[in-house]
Amino acid sequence: MAETILQRWGQKFFILGAMTLFLLPLMGMDFKTYLTLTIAGVAVGMMLFLIASGLSLIFGLMDVINFAHGVCFAWGAYVAFTVFKYFESLVVAPSVFKNLLVFFMAIVAAMIVVAGVGIVVERVLVRRVYGSHLFQILITFGGMVVLTELIKIIWGPNDEVMPVPATFKGNWDIFDVIVLKYPIIAIVIGLIVYGIIQFVLKNTKVGKIVRAGVEDPDMVQAMGHNVFLLFTAVFAAGAGLAAVGGVAMSMFTQQVYSEMGGAYLIFAFIVVIIGGLGSITGSLVGALIVGLSYNYVAYLFPPLAMGVNILIMVIILLIKPTGLFAAGK
Amino acid sequence: MAELTPVQIFRREETDKYFKTGTFYLKLALVAVFFMVPFVFPSFKVIDLALKIMIFAVLVASFDILLGYTGILSFGHVMFFGIGAYSVAMMVGKYGSPSYVNLLIGFIIAMGITIALAMLISFLSLRVKAIFFAMVTLAIAEFAIIFATKLSGFTGGEDGILISMPGIFKTSYQMGTFLGLEIKGRIITYYFAFIVSLGLFLLMLRFIDSPLGRVLQAIRDNEPRAEAIGYKTFVFKAISICFGCLVATILGGLYVMWVAYANPESVLGIPIMLDVLLMVIVGGMGTLYGGLAGAAFLMIAYTFLPDLQNLTQSLLPNAHLLHSIMERWLLIFGVLFILVVFFFPKGIIGTIQDFLLQRKATSSD
Predict the structure, then answer these.
(1) Residue B30 lies in a domain
(2) In Å, how far is A124's CA from the nearest CA of chain B?
(3) Which of B328, B330, B335, B340 to mutate to probe the A interface, most A CBs <10 Å?
């Protein structure tokens, strides 16, 4: 009996419990710290959403777990790093317009380059192994290693400091609470991207085809749409999303390093396992959960920051093994 | 003695035939080679290479039980290797004294943790989809690395744990000479590792040829069908995972007995996982002997790569791009990995086996 109640109400109980849980850290800190950590946590969550949504979308449509996805994130960060270095005068200029210009240039450049990388990965590697999960994982893992090493060859193996345009630095003082500017901007970027994805998926023809493809790719093919072209496009779009996430994250932590792809890939996996593979909203919720709990625990008890995410993942796998918002297959 | 049934006679003939084939003698010769290494090449470098090939060959074979025989991809296999290494290192070094009892306790604790953790991971991740296993194990393996690095008070952090071995395994131990070879602690450790590895390998061969192993192969080939026949595939997968991980744990303990230190980079890192993956792919999935081929290939490559780098440096001093690529040998291994997966998905041993089978088929026609 208890089991059926848990099954029926498990998700609602969980969401309620989770919401109270996020008030719990208040006991260990004062309100201002809590607010700062929450904003930072939501910002990190938004950036994790950017990388996880692509992973989730690619899985939902193509049934492929892309282990090379994290490395797209790193490539995005490095391309933005190059743009910022090249247009250093625009970065250090005190003009808001110039700062925004170079920022958008970096985002666009990162998206284009990484979408290109995504197309190459899809066409050369993944295309040959559709249908076999084992080989997909092996191949994309190999792709991750190669792309990581290419970063080391192109940009050098050392950690670099990411230059941040002047507009994005500093903070606002709101009612004696000091709020960093950048996390707010990152949250706004994340929400805009979430809005764009939802709009494209819900309101455009391409979005409809993609959603139909998530349900049944064979049927979409039978209806006369080129599913393989769609696969490549979604793969490139997912890689581009990861690139935006990489730019945002590297500006947040103000550093780029070659192994960052692998590190954030783990986060992305935890996010999609929590949120449910194939669901964009699930990715957003999962990313917020991971970002917030990581920030709280990193403040309260630093060594266990990674552990708490694994713990949440384990709990979700126990309660609802398909994730909170499982979609499609 | 009762009359032999036709099946028994057939089996006996098959066994007799097996002892007359070339492969059987090849296997015996391989064992003999590993046995003779300290006598023929008494230099530390060669013995070290032979021992690492041996341990990694068996580690890769244990990984192959999961990947090649059950069809489960785990990125946490090296983590179990690391658990064995750390447990032994802690019991003998950090929290205990070098004694045989502590060594044994270290192994036993490691095996206990491994069984618990392997069960937990299988119960968590096998319920949904097999691919979850890869993701969950990767996350937990990463957590293990962070755990070992950050909790430096408990695990020794980046520096790891240095240990000295008890009694006859001690480096300074002397037992006189035998056939011109000084029997030192190192040599005894080598033979100890040799015997245990050989035992584990034979155990794994028995495991995959047992009815249980056949069920695992059935699951790999067609899981819904195996389930339809009436096997609880989940239980069999969990057993396979536990068994493979246990072997990895014991090997981790052996490895730390030889190198006498354990740090996150040497026994836990993702690069080692990549090595193991590469070894199993190059050697051949679904052939336990592939582990030996893959391990030998990669370990020897590691030994000679620096020489190759120096060679290219001296031959083509101006090709900077080539040098930077040569420095990043992981890139070469990554490309090799992808190429092997595409074009030789059966690896060295699998391809040879196919070739032999084909020749047999054509010659018998």
Answers:
(1) no
(2) 10
(3) B328
Q: What is the CATH number of the domain that holds B166?
A: 1.10.3470
Round to whole Å and give the CA distance between A96 and A168: 9
Number of domains comprising chain B = 1
Q: Report if residue B22 sits inside a domain.
A: no
Query: What does the pLDDT look like over A67-118, one tens digit per residue?
Result: 888 899 999 999 998 888 888 777 777 777 888 888 888 899 999 999 999 9
Strands A177-180 and A171-174: antiparallel
Give domain status of residue B13, yes or no: no
User: Are residues B331 and A145, on separate chains, in Cβ contact within 8 Å?
Assistant: yes
Per DSSP (E only), the strands in B151-260 are 161-162, 174-178, 181-184
Fill in the amino acid letter for B1: M
Quick: pLDDT tens for B126-166: 876 667 888 888 888 888 888 888 777 777 777 778 777 77
Q: What 3-state DSSP class applies to B156?
A: coil
Residue type, B73: L
Q: Do A145 and B73 touch (CB under 8 A)?
A: no
| Torsion B246-B252-B254-B257 (CA) sign | negative
The DSSP annotation for A232-290 comes to HHHHHHHHHHHHHHHHHHHHHHTEE-TTHHHHHHHHHHHHHHHH-TT-HHHHHHHHHHH
Strands A177-180 and B174-178: unpaired
User: Which tokens go with B314?
Assistant: 């001296």
Best mutation target, A266, A304, A316, A324, to test chain B (most B CBs within 10 A)? A266
SS3 call for A171: strand
User: Looking at this predicted complex, what is its ipTM?
Assistant: 0.81
Would the CB atoms of B135 and A273 count as touching at under 8 Å? yes
Q: Contact A310/B342, CB-based, under 8 Å?
A: no
> For residue B178, is it within any domain?
yes
Q: Within an 8 Å CB–CB cutoff, is residue A17 touching chain B?
A: no
Q: Do the domain assignments include residue A248?
A: yes
